[in-house]
Amino acid sequence: MARTVLCARLQQELPGLDFQLIPGELGKRVFDNISKQAWTEWQKKQTMLINEKKLNLMNADDRSLLEVEMVKYLFEGQDVDIEGYTPPSE
């Protein structure tokens, strides 16, 4: 049976991640509180952020920036502000 979590981002019981994707405390927090669906949404935002800001994941400052944005997005309900990106209108 798939494990479910009360997703901090989407505020509902949803299937959780299959395993901890990030090391350490933050990784445990994501694993325990974020659904697969919210994680997939974050990954799309993260890709746009990396491309927009030309982040280099070998660079510790760039990784820190991404981590801060991830926490804001997943746990604080904030959207990722990507300069020059306009969401497609519904």
TrEMBL record:
As one GO molecular function, the record gives:
iron ion binding
Is Transport a UniProt keyword of this protein?
no
Q: According to the lineage, what is the superkingdom?
A: Bacteria
Q: List the InterPro entries.
A: Fe_traffick_prot_YggX, Fe_traffick_prot_YggX_sf
Q: What is this protein called?
A: Probable Fe(2+)-trafficking protein
Keyword field: Iron
A GO BP entry is: cellular response to oxidative stress
Function per UniProt: Could be a mediator in iron transactions between iron acquisition and iron-requiring processes, such as synthesis and/or repair of Fe-S clusters in biosynthetic enzymes. Necessary to maintain high levels of aconitase under oxidative stress.
Protein's organism = Motilimonas pumila
- Protein family membership: Belongs to the Fe(2+)-trafficking protein family.
HAMAP family per UniProt = Fe_traffic_YggX
What's a single GO CC term here? cytosol
